[in-house]
Automatic annotation (TrEMBL):
SUPFAM superfamilies, per the entry: S-adenosyl-L-methionine-dependent methyltransferases (SSF53335)
Organism per entry: Moorena bouillonii PNG
Keywords, ordered alphabetically: Methyltransferase, S-adenosyl-L-methionine, Transferase
Residues covered by the Methyltransferase type domain: 70-163
Protein name: Methyltransferase type 11 domain-containing protein
Length: 208
């Protein structure tokens, strides 16, 4: 019965297994480039609530609407759009996939867009840092792990806010790395995702 449910679930979301089966960052980039044009429509049912939730949570933690915000793994810019709707003005997008970023650019909510691999230790020049960093849908299997977490942490200002989504199974794998960083968990929400049995967490940390 459970296996049948899982089969139905994947049949209605063929993009999910394609993306999560990526064997390398290069393959992930190619897969997102190919997916870019239908991404928004495909994820609407499962994910459309999340960007607005993220923007609402950030506005409770960071009232300054001119704060510098990095949307790490911005994709097609759904989070940037929700942040702009909350009044945030100083948004930077970073993503592996040029095609995803091209769609993000069309939304006209980002001051700057960077095509990059967040695994690279030098994503920006040394002087760049942010009041908040958001990584939505990025810490996931075949996506970002500890290396990306540490790189992004280095780009966060003192007392900066780091907001990330993470599914409960992947959170267990990242738990030690999340706990080791000098920051405090200041907000935790959870939402059922994909099949009702799985939870997606929205976590916010404040850097010490
Ligand atoms: C599931 S999408 C989420 C997009 C967007 N944040 C949203 O909520 O709709 C994951 C995004 O992370 C990007 N990504 C994954 N690993 C990355 C990496 N190592 N460097 C840069 N971007 C990465 C992918 O290209 C993709 O656009």
């Amino acid at each position: 019965m459970i296996e049948e449910q899982a089969k139905d679930f994947l049949e209605t979301r063929p993009w999910l297994s394609g993306i999560c089966d990526s064997q390398s960052t290069e393959e992930l980039k190619t897969n997102y480039d190919s997916w870019a044009n239908t991404y928004d429509a495909d994820i609407k049912e499962d994910w459309s609530f999340m960007p607005a939730n993220i923007a609402r949570t950030l506005s409770q933690l960071l009232p300054n609407k001119d704060a510098t915000i990095l949307d790490a793994g911005a994709g097609t810019g759904l989070v940037g759009e929700a942040l702009a709707q909350q009044g945030y003005t100083n948004l930077t997008a970073a993503d592996l996939s040029e095609k995803m970023l091209a769609i993000a650019k069309e939304r006209q909510v980002y001051k700057a867009l960077h095509q990059c691999n967040l695994e690279d230790s030098q994503i920006f020049s040394n002087s760049v840092s942010f009041d908040a960093i958001i990584a939505a849908g990025v810490f996931a299997y075949a996506h970002a792990g500890v290396e990306v977490l540490n790189n992004l942490f280095g780009l966060l200002k003192e007392e900066g806010i780091f907001l990330l989504t993470i599914r409960e199974d992947y959170r267990r794998e990242m738990q030690t790395a999340l706990e080791q960083l000098p920051w405090t968990l200041v907000s935790e929400e959870d939402f059922p995702i994909y099949d009702e049995a799985k939870l997606m967490y929205l976590l916010a940390f404040k850097k010490e």
